[in-house]
Specification:
The structure holds two protein chains of two kinds. By secondary structure, chain A is α/β, with parallel strands linked by helices. Helices cover about 40% and strands about 20% of the residues of chain A. The chains are: A alpha/beta, B mainly beta.
Chain lengths: ~170, ~550
């Protein structure tokens, strides 16, 4: 059965060297907190920067990251006009906590829900927290995980790509 | 081996296209690998299975272009064998997902494997959870149509995946959702939904019940600026009950589900209340799969509605939803569950006496789950239930959590949990456990990229195997590297042989979208739950490695 493993690895290797980037925000239906359907294509800043942060009410590092960003978000927004969309991937088990939690935390960004993880799947996301940055619909940045302080690195990236700086 | 040829063909097809073609230009892929090397351990026991080295690998390729056509392909390999606790139906290499999608304005058609959810998933949910070994996608056709941005219609038909195989019968479904907010003439949202799911099981044949079981559901969702409420009802037509390992020809009952939820939130205060009643509600693509260990062939999603915990000791006695009829003995008769959970959140503002400089977050949860009340006739296999009666208690939990940031460098989480777990009824064994759990988590930020996190936990109980303690320390060395060490210890276990330190140590390296982890340690055996779904795992000791990456 080692053969299978070798075949798979080779396959992966060839695919990876052949690949160019998937550089667009895919077309998937998300929901607002009220349950209305919204197409992912209408969620990004047409000409500016958008950060998508994938989180869940049970993911502590995700919440820590969003809390940390929230603290500086007014400054981020006024300096770079960046938009942040926090995509909750909570399913039926925990989705009812999303609205009270968001309200309690007073997050200043847009919250959308991806209950059966269609958007997450379309973007090939395997683990959370996962951050995606896009300029218009073009994906320019991706990162898995969050450790305290990393929000500053993210802001560096935003500053570097922000149109106000160019 | 057939599968290998299949994916070779696809691979060559992909490569034979002009590389600059649309497909490759928009191709995205991700790869995840979870491997383990199991060791013998004088405490947790020798490794008594084949293949000490085991590996699960997932490669996903998909296109997401602006064009009308897209596809997705996922290849999985379980080689030389799947990790412990994964279904034996995951064998060698195979194609687990293949689909082609067509999008045109308001129309979306998928052919092949698809994931879908109707309402809250109580009537239908197909999804993937690699950690739990769940991938119950449906293979067939999924067609969606949207009318005036107000009406969504979905129809599905197909057979269901189980490992690399498929169910013998088929599933058919219809879902509609209407946005009726306009009639309210305010900012509020008002949604209505109707669904139908039919399960045709071709394997079980009986004069006593039909191949087809039908489920009908209706739901209403209302939401305004600071209030929301919703209700969902399901009726399931007559279905055979599995008893003593076989399907009964005489014990045949209908099923039902009722879910009610409401909440208010305003100025840092949030309250949420959920009531759910389930009676004989599990649905599998084949009846005989009922209660299988690997959660295979599940059609609907019935998670436990309790607070989802993140700490090891709060996850020792975890409730699993009890949607089924189970007549084990005269004193162990279950027909479903009824109960509620309520959450209260409060944020104490910054610059107040209790809030301090950064404010304080408070969270309270109370959940209570019971058997249905009614008349149970064990010897004749009959029952009648009361609609709003509460039977014997399965589980209750009260938890209180405080999250407090003291300074730029230091914050704390304090959690107290009081639990009652009826092991006899839930696991169909013996015992009841009353416990109190205390957790203190502290994070200290050393500088921009370095931080330390310490977790201290204690569980106090007179029952089962008595008290436990746990400790964990994590050191984030840089934005890329993190290491940890933890221990879980049942220090009061009356059986000296069972007094085991479940230690673990490991680290992770992540850079951009690549993440690598390594872990060495002992896995506690028993019920392990994630996302409201639980499964039994045997004790083991060894090394674990994971790789997660995407090429985009």
């Amino acid at each position: 059965m080692k053969l299978n493993f070798i075949i798979l690895s080779t396959f992966l290797f060839f695919i990876s060297i052949n690949l160019q980037s998937q550089d667009k925000i895919p077309n998937v239906t998300l929901k607002t907190l009220e349950g209305k359907s919204i197409n992912s294509k209408s969620t990004f800043n047409k000409n500016g920067l958008t950060i998508y942060s994938f989180w869940a009410t049970w993911c502590i590092p995700c919440i820590n990251e969003l809390d940390a960003i929230n603290k500086d978000f007014d400054k981020w927004k006024s300096e770079t006009n960046v938009k942040l969309v926090a995509v909750s991937t909570d399913d039926a088990r925990t989705k009812r906590r999303v609205r009270p939690l968001v309200n309690g935390k007073k997050w200043k960004f847009e919250i959308l829900t991806d209950e059966n993880q269609d958007f997450m799947r379309a973007l090939n996301i395997n683990a959370m927290p996962h951050t995606i940055g896009s300029k218009g619909s073009k994906i320019i940045y991706r990162k898995i995980g969050y450790k305290p302080g990393e929000e500053n690195d993210l802001y560096e990236i935003i500053l570097k790509n922000s149109s106000k700086n160019n | 081996m057939k599968n290998i040829y299949k994916f070779f063909i696809i691979f060559f097809l992909l490569n034979s296209f002009n590389i600059k073609s649309q497909i490759l230009k928009n191709l995205s892929s991700s790869f995840q690998s979870n491997s383990a090397y199991y060791l013998d351990d004088s405490k947790t026991g020798d490794f008594n299975f084949d293949n000490r080295f085991r590996s699960n690998n997932y490669l996903n390729l998909k296109t997401y272009s602006d064009k009308n056509w897209n596809f997705e392909l996922q290849i999985e390999s379980y080689s030389p064998k799947a990790l412990l606790n994964y279904s034996p139906n995951f064998e060698e290499v195979g194609i687990s997902t293949f689909n082609v999608q067509y999008n045109k304005k308001k129309l979306n058609i998928q052919l092949g494997n698809f994931y879908e959810q109707f309402g809250s998933g109580m009537i239908l949910r197909s999804w993937e959870d690699k950690d739990l070994g769940i991938n119950n996608s449906v293979r067939g056709m999924n067609a969606k149509y949207r009318i005036n941005d107000k009406i969504n219609i979905t129809t599905i038909i197909g057979d269901q995946k189980k490992g690399f195989k498929y169910s013998k019968g088929y599933i058919i479904g219809f879902d509609s959702e209407f946005d009726a907010s306009d009639i309210l003439k305010s900012d509020s949202t008002f949604l209505l939904g109707l669904s139908y799911v039919g399960r045709n099981d071709n394997i079980t044949k009986s004069e006593s019940y039909k191949k087809m079981t039908n489920l009908f559901s209706g739901r209403i969702d209302y939401s305004s600026n600071s209030f929301y409420t919703n209700i969902e009802l399901i009726h399931k037509t007559k279905d055979a009950i599995k008893i003593f390992g076989g399907l009964s020809n005489t014990f045949i009952k209908e099923g039902s589900a009722l879910l009610y939820n409401a909440g208010i939130f305003k100025n840092g205060f949030g309250l949420d209340f959920t009531f759910r009643r389930l009676e004989n509600m599990s649905v599998y693509s084949k009846r005989v799969a009922f209660g299988n260990l690997y959660n295979e062939s599940i059609i609907n999603y019935l998670p436990a509605l309790t607070k989802q915990h993140d700490y090891s000791l709060t996850n020792l006695y975890v409730y699993a939803a009890q949607p089924n009829v189970s007549f084990q003995s005269k004193n162990l008769t279950k027909v479903g569950e009824t109960g509620f959970q309520t959450d209260i959140y409060y944020f104490i503002k910054e610059d107040t006496f209790l809030g301090g400089e950064y404010g304080t977050n408070l969270a309270f949860n109370w959940s209570l789950w019971n058997n249905l009340d009614g008349e149970f006739d064990y010897f004749n296999q009959k029952y009648e239930t009361d609609l709003f009666g509460f039977g014997k208690k399965y589980f209750s939990e009260i938890s209180f959590e405080i999250r407090k940031k003291w300074s730029k460098k230091f914050d704390n989480i304090l959690l107290f949990v009081n639990q009652f777990y009826n092991k006899k009824l839930i696991e169909e064994t013996l015992g009841e456990i009353k416990s109190n759990i205390l957790v203190l988590e502290s994070t200290y930020k050393i500088n921009q990229n370095k931080s330390l996190r310490l977790e201290l936990q204690h569980l106090t109980t007179e029952d089962d195997t008595k008290n436990w303690s746990a400790i964990g320390l994590e050191y984030n060395i840089s934005s890329a590297v993190s290491i940890y060490i933890s221990d879980l210890y049942n220090y009061q276990n009356p059986d000296i042989v069972e007094k085991i330190h479940y230690y673990n140590l490991g680290g992770s390296y992540s850079k951009g979208i690549n993440r690598y982890t390594i872990n060495y340690g002992r896995q506690r055996g028993g019920l392990v739950c994630t996302g409201g779904i639980c499964r039994y795992v045997p004790e083991s000791t060894g090394f674990n490695f994971t790789i997660t990456t995407s090429f985009f």
